[in-house]
Amino acid sequence: MRKVGVVGAGTMGSGIAALLVSAGVPVVLLDIPGQEDRNGPAKKGLERALKARPAAFMDKDLARYIEIGNTEDDLEKLRDCDWVVEAIVEKPEPKQALYARLEAILKPTAIVSSNTSGIPMRILLEGRSESFRRRFLGTHFFNPPRYLHLLELIPTPETDPQVLERMRRFAERVLGKGVVLAKDAPGFVANRLGVYGMVQAIRLMEKHGLTIDEVDALTGPLLGRPNSATFRTADLTGLDVLKLVTEELAHATGEDFALPDWVLRLVAEGRLGEKTGAGFYTRKDGEVLTLDPATFTYRPRQKLDLPELKALMDKPLPERLKGALALPGKYGAFLKELFLRTAHYTLEKTPEIAYDLVSVDQALEWGFGWEAGPYKNMDAVGLEALRTGFAELGLSEPDLLSKAQGSFYKDGTYLAFDGSYQPLPTRPEVISLKRVRSEGKVLLENKDAALLDLGDGVALLEFRTKMNAIGEGVLSLLQKSLDFIEKNGYAGLVIGNEDPRAFSAGANLALILSQAQEGDWDELALAVRAFQKATMSLRYSPFPVVAAPFGLTLGGGAEITLHADRVQAHAELYMGLVEVGVGLIPAGGGTKELLFRFTRELAPYEEADPFEAVKRAFGLIAMAQTSTSALEARKMGFLRDGDGISMNRDFLLSDAKRKVLELAPDYRPPLPPSIRTLGDEALGNLRYAVWSFREAGQISDHDARIGLELAYVLAGGEGPGREVSEWDILDLEREAFLKLLGTRKTQERIAHMLKTGKPLRN
Ligand code: NAD
C-alpha cells in the first residue's frame, strides 16, 4: 500500500487519514466541494484532526503528507491509490454513487472498502462489476481510530481471499490494529453486542430501582470494563449517536433496542452528553453532577460506599465477577439479570455475526475495552450457573451452550459452532511472556524481576513491580542477568514486559523518600551509583541490548531505554525524564546521556554552536517534557534513527528480539566517548535563563534551585570548558541529585507524588 485514498473527511475519515500518515502511508483525503473554498470541507476535516484531543496524529508535521481535495474536481487523485476507504455519510445512495465513479477511474488492483457501521455490503455493492466486488470489503474502524484497537473486517462472499489477507496483514502490522472478521450482519460484532448490553443496563436500572451513579459504579471495573462504565460512556459517545445506532439496529434486526422515554427526552432537549456539556452527567463549578431521571434535574454525584464492593475490587476478574453477581439485595439482582440477559443474547447471536466465539471476545476487549470478553466471563461464572439463571428468567437454553462441555475454552482450544473443540489460533510471530513462563523458561528470578528465555539465544528481562518501578530488586536482577547472558553465551538481551500501561514509571520513590527521611545518605549515594552502574553496564555489555518500551516510560524507565544499544518502541510511547516533577534531576545517566548524545550529534557540523546541545538537554529535563508518541520521542531525541517503532503492541517483543539477532553476529560494544563541556560559558547562559523565568514568575524558587543544579551538571561544572568522560558527568549528576533530595521542598514533592500521583509545584 504505497498510497491510500480516504473519501469523507468527517470524524472517522479525518481520524483514519491521521492514523495512516502516522503509520508512514501518504494519503489523499477528499470530501464534497465547499461553496467558497472548493476544498473547504476536506480542509476543515484535516484541521479538526490536527486539533483533536487526544491527538489524532502521532506527529502533526505528518499532516503535510495528506493531500486534500474534493470529489468533484479531484477524484483523479485517487487513480494511483492502492486502497480507497470510504467514510462518507451513512446512507446507501451516496455511497453507491461514489463507488460507481471510483470504479471508472481506479486501477484494476485497487482495494475499496467502506467504513459503514451498519449498511449491508450487498446493498452497497448493487450495480458494481464482478472485478470491483472481488476487491471490496467492509473496514469498520472505531472512534477514535488511533486509540481504539479494534478493526472489524467484513468480507462478502465475493471478496477475494487474497484481498482480505492483504488488508488483514496491512491493518495488523502497519496500522497496528486488532483485526476481527465479522459477518455482514447488522452492527457487526462489537456494536451489536456492546450496544445491546448498554441498552439492557439502562433499562434494568429502572426495573431494579437504581440510580445512574449506582449503575456506573456497578458496571465499570467491577465487571472488568472501563471506568466510564455505562452512562459516562454514553455521554462520551453522544446520546444522539446512541439513539441513531439503536434505531438502526432495531430496524435492521427487528429486535427490541428501544431506549427508555427519559433517555429520548434528553436527546430531544439537546442534552447529548460531553459535546453539549450535559447528558446523563453535567459539570458545575468543577463538580460532577448526575441526572435524576425522576425530576430531570442534576444533583451531586453519589459515591457508592459498599464494603462488599471494596472487598471485591482487588480480586482477579473471575472471582470479582462471581462475587458481583452474588452481591446482596438490588445490586446483586441487577448485575445478575444484566449478566444473564446479555450472555443469553451473545450466545444466541454469535453464529449469526461472527466466525467463532474467540472473535467475539476479541471484539469486546479491543472495541469496548473489556478486560475479558463475554465467553471468558461466562466460563468464569460457570456454565451450570448460566443454565440455572436462564431457566429462572424463563429463557431457553441457547444452542451453543448445549454444545459446550464444561467450558467454552479449555486447554488451548475453544468451542466451535459444530460442537467440536478447535485449537486457539496462534500467531507464531507473537511472543507471549505468559506462555514463556508457563513453559518454565525462566532463567533467573526474584520477587521484582525475572530473566526469561525467548529462544534463539535471546533472553528477556522483565520487571514485575507495581507500575514496573525500579528499585533494588530490579537492579540486582539486571546485574545478575548481564553476567548470566555473558557466561552462558546468549546472543543478547531484550528489556520489556506485558504490563497494559507502564514499561516503567521510574525509580521506586517510596524507598528513596524513606531513606532520605532517615538520613541514610551513604546508602542513598550507593543506591544512585548502583543505578548509574546498571545503565552503564547495559551500554557496555559485550552483547546487544534492545529495550522495548511502551506506554509510560518515565524517569528511570526512560534512562534504561536511553542506555540500550537500540530501542524498539511501541507507537504509543509516553517517554520523558520527569524527575523535576519530584524535585530531582535524572541521575541514572539520563542527564549525562542527553548531554553526550546531543553534543556528539553536533560534532560533524563545524559551524554549529555547542551550546545548542546543552540547551536542548536542559529544555527536555527542566520542563519534564514527555512524548505523546514514539514518533515524537524520536523528534525530541529520546529515540535515534536506528531505533524501530512497532505499530502493534502484539509484535513489539518479537520485533525487539529480531533486532537483537540482527545486531548479534558482529556486535562490538561502543568505545567510551568523551566530549568538551562548556563550563562557565554554558553556566552563565543557563543561570540567566533560570533567573529570567523566576523574575517573570513562571517558576518557583525551588524550580529555580533545581534548574541551577541541572545547569551545573550540563555545563560540566564551573570553570573553563574541559574534556570529560561519561563518569565525570555521572558524578556531577549524583551529587546534584543527593543535594536536591536533602531539601525539604523536594521531599514534599516526592511525598505529594506518592500520595496523589500528581506533581506538586512548591
Ligand atoms: P461525519 O458526518 O463526521 O463525516 C462524513 C463526511 O463525509 C462529512 O465531512 C461529509 O461532508 C462527507 N460526505 C458526505 N457525503 C459525501 C459524498 N457524497 N462524497 C464525499 N464526501 C461526503 O461522519 P462519520 O462519523 O465520520 O462517519 C462516516 C462513516 O463512518 C459512516 O458510514 C459511519 O456510519 C461510519 N462510522 C462512524 C463511526 C463514529 O463513531 N462516528 C464509527 C464507525 C463507523
UniProtKB/TrEMBL annotation:
<keyword id="KW-0520">NAD</keyword>
<keyword id="KW-0442">Lipid degradation</keyword>
<dbReference type="GO" id="GO:0003857">
    <property type="term" value="F:(3S)-3-hydroxyacyl-CoA dehydrogenase (NAD+) activity"/>
</dbReference>
<comment type="pathway">
    <text>Lipid metabolism; fatty acid beta-oxidation.</text>
</comment>
<keyword id="KW-0560">Oxidoreductase</keyword>
<dbReference type="InterPro" id="IPR001753">
    <property type="entry name" value="Enoyl-CoA_hydra/iso"/>
</dbReference>
<dbReference type="Pfam" id="PF02737">
    <property type="entry name" value="3HCDH_N"/>
</dbReference>
<dbReference type="InterPro" id="IPR008927">
    <property type="entry name" value="6-PGluconate_DH-like_C_sf"/>
</dbReference>
<dbReference type="GO" id="GO:0070403">
    <property type="term" value="F:NAD+ binding"/>
</dbReference>
<dbReference type="Pfam" id="PF00378">
    <property type="entry name" value="ECH_1"/>
</dbReference>
<protein>
    <submittedName>
        <fullName>3-hydroxyacyl-CoA dehydrogenase</fullName>
    </submittedName>
</protein>
<feature type="domain" description="3-hydroxyacyl-CoA dehydrogenase C-terminal">
    <location>
        <begin position="187"/>
        <end position="282"/>
    </location>
</feature>
<dbReference type="InterPro" id="IPR006176">
    <property type="entry name" value="3-OHacyl-CoA_DH_NAD-bd"/>
</dbReference>
<dbReference type="InterPro" id="IPR036291">
    <property type="entry name" value="NAD(P)-bd_dom_sf"/>
</dbReference>
<keyword id="KW-0443">Lipid metabolism</keyword>
<dbReference type="InterPro" id="IPR029045">
    <property type="entry name" value="ClpP/crotonase-like_dom_sf"/>
</dbReference>
<dbReference type="Pfam" id="PF00725">
    <property type="entry name" value="3HCDH"/>
</dbReference>
<keyword id="KW-0276">Fatty acid metabolism</keyword>
<feature type="domain" description="3-hydroxyacyl-CoA dehydrogenase NAD binding">
    <location>
        <begin position="3"/>
        <end position="184"/>
    </location>
</feature>
<dbReference type="InterPro" id="IPR006108">
    <property type="entry name" value="3HC_DH_C"/>
</dbReference>
<dbReference type="GO" id="GO:0006635">
    <property type="term" value="P:fatty acid beta-oxidation"/>
</dbReference>
